[in-house]
Amino acid sequence: MNNRLYGNLIFELSRKGRQGYTLPRNTYGSHTDELPASLRRQAALKLPECDELTVVRHYTNLSHDNFGVNDGFYPLGSCTMKYNPVIDEEIAALEAFAALHPLQPADTCQHALGLYYALQQSLAELTGMKEFTLNPCAGAHGELTGLMVIRAYHQSRGDEARTKVLIPDSAHGTNPASAAVCGLEVVEVKSGPDGLVDVADLERLISEQGPSIAAMMMTNPNTLGIFEHDIPLITQMVHRCGALMYYDGANLNPLLGVCRPGDMGFDVMHVNLHKTFSTPHGGGGPGSGPVGVREGLEPFLPTPRVVERAGTYSVETGDYEQSLGSVGCFFGNFGVMVRAYAYILSLGRENVRMVGPLATLNANYVKESLRDVYELPIGGLCKHEFVFDGLKDKSTGVTTMDVAKRLLDYGYHAPTIYFPLLFHESLMIEPTENESLDTLDAFIQVMRRIADEAKTDPERVKAAPLTTPIGRVDDVLAARQPVVTFKQMSHE
Q1: Is residue 199 part of a domain?
Q2: 336 and 204, same structural domain?
C-alpha cells in the first residue's frame, strides 16, 4: 500500500490541534515583544495544523514528484532545457555575489561590475555583435528592447514611416507579441514547402511595403530546426529597402562555435542566457535576455551601462542622448548572469566550439532513429531540434497528446507538442548537446515502444499516464475553469 498520500494538499492533512512546534513565552524581564492589540488579528489565521513529520514528509514527497534536468532527460523542443552544472549554482550563491545590493557604491562591488562587463564582451565575441546590454530580464523583454532600439534608430533619421515588422509564419509567438507591444504592425512572411522562408513572398512584400518596413525578425535555425540557407540573400533584400535585421536568439545553441548572427548580417539580437548559457527556465523563470547590436547602434542601447576605464568599472546613466533609458529595475537578473559567465568560463574557448556541432549531432541521431515510425514532414539535415507530425500510422487514433502522456509513464518529460502550428500533430524534440549516447538510445527505445503500443494496445496509450500521482486531466477545463483556491474543510 502506498502511504505517500499522493495528491493531498497540506490543508487536507490538517487536523485540529496538531502542532509542529511550540515556543515558550518570554519570561526574561518586563519587556515583551508582543504586537499592540490594534495590529493583531481578531481571529486566528486559517493555516493548516500539522505535526512536524507530516509537514516534512509532505514537502519532501512533493519535491520527489517534481521532474527536472537533474532527474532525467528533458527533450523539450524550442526551450533548450539543459543541465546547469552545480558549480554555476555554487558560484552564484557566493556571498560576494548573492549579498550585493544594487544601490551600493561601485567601488564596493568592482568584482560584480567586472563580471557584468566581461559577460557583455564574451557575448559580443560569441555572436559577432559590437556591444551588449544585460538589462532585459527575459527573452521577450529582450525582443521588445531590441525592437525599441530599431525604432529609435529609424526615428533618429527622421524615418517615421517605418512601422511594420516582417515575421515568418513559423516564428515564436513572442515575436509578433513584442512587435505589437512596441507599437509596430506585424506582416507575416510565408514559409515554403521546405519549411524555410519563401523568398518570393518576401520579395513581394518588400516591393509592396518597403518604405514602411522597420525590420525583419528571424530565428535561424528556424522553429522547425532548419537552417535558413538563404539568409545572405534575405539580409541583402531587407537592408536594401532600408530596414534592419533582428535575430531571435532562442535557437542559438547549434550556432555556437560554427557561425555568428552578426556575420550573417543581423543588426540587433537578443540572447536567452536561461536557454543557451546554463540556467534552465522551467516554471516561468528566472530569465535574462541581453540585447546586442552591431556597430553604429550602440548609442540607442538602454541605461544604466557598466563601463571600464583604466581597469576600474563604473555605472553610467547620463550623457546618452539617444538611449532608450531604463527598461527595467537596476541591472536585470544578476544571478542568471553569474551562472552564464561561470558556464562560459568552464567551457572555455575550445569547448564552446563543440556546443553547436554536438547539439546538431544529437538531434539528427534521434530524428533518423525514429523517422520510420513517426511522421517527418520535412526531411534533410536539421540543427538542434526537429518536428514530427505525430505517429506515422494514423489509423490507430493515437495522437501526439497521447504519446506525450505515455512518455510520463516511462519517466521522461514530454517534448513540446502542437507547436509549431505548421503541422496538425506537431511533436518537437530537442536533445541538446549535453546528453550522452546512452540517454538518447534509451529515449529512442521508449519512443519506439510507444509506437508499437499504439498498434497493439491503443486504448492503453490513450488512457496514459497510468503510473503518475495524477492521471489524465481535462486540459481544456483546467484552462477555462481553473480552480486556484482551496475550500477549507473541517477535520475535527
Answers
A1: yes
A2: yes
DSSP bridge partners of 188:
167
Q: Are residues 432 and 299 in the same domain?
A: no
Task: Say if residue 317 is in the same domain as residue 416.
Answer: no
Give the number of domains in the chain: 2
400, 456: one domain: yes
Residue-wise pLDDT tens digits, 360-376: 999 999 999 999 999 99
| 130: in domain | yes
Residues 133, 158 within the same domain: yes
pLDDT digits (tens, 9 = 90+) for 326-364: 998 888 899 999 999 999 999 998 899 999 999 999 999
Residue 136's CATH number: 3.40.640.10
pTM higher than 0.85: yes
